[in-house]
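ok so i was messing around last nite and threw this chain in just to see what happens. nothing serious, just curious
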Amino acid sequence: MKDKLMSKTFLWMCVGLLVTFLTGFFVANNEVMIVNIFKNSTYLILCIVELILVIALSAKVRTMGKNVARIFFILYSFVTGLTFSSIFIIYELTSILYVFLLASVVFLVFGLIGYFTKLDLTKIGTYLMMALFAVIICFLINLFVDSNSFDLILSIISILIFIGFTAYDVQKIKRLSEEDLIPEDNLSIIGALNLYLDYINIFLDLLRIFGNSRD
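result:
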C-alpha cells in the first residue's frame, strides 16, 4: 500500500504545483489582473483566504470526502498561484526556471532520504517547528530592520528547516500508510499538502538567494 500511496501523494503534489505555477504565470501576464490584485486590498484578502483554506484542509481532511479534499487542495493551489504571480514580475523567467530545477533536485534528494532512512525522524518534527517559528519572527523583525545580510542568513536557515521537513514528512506519510488509520485518498491529499508546502518554501528561499530580479 505504501508505494501506491506515495505515488498518489507525489502525483497530487505535482498537480498542486502545476496549478500554482500556471496560475501565477497567467496572472503575471495579465495587466488587468495584476492591477486588481496588487493595487488594492485584494492581495491581503487572498492571503487570508489562503490561510483559511490550508487550516481547514489540514484540520478536516481526515473526515472529508475524498473529492471534497481534492477540491480544497486544488482551490488552495489556485489561490496560492494568484499571490504567487508576484515572483514572475520580480524575477526573470529563466532565473525562476533555474531555481525550480534546483529546488526539485534538493527536494528529491531529501525526500528519498526520508523514505529510505532507518533513522526515526519523529522527534525532529518538534524542533523543526520551533525553529520555523523563530525564523518567522526574525523575518517579521527584518521587515523593519531591512538587512540584506540578515535576510540571506534567514533564507539559508529556512532552507535547512524545510529540507528537514521534507524528509520528516515523507517518513511520516510512509508510517501512516503502514498504520492504515486514514483512508488512502485522504492521506494522499494531506501528504501532498505537506510536501507542497515544503517544496514551495524551499523554492522561495532559493529564489531569494539565487534569483535574478528584472530591474
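not much to say yet. The two ends are 50 Å apart (CA to CA).
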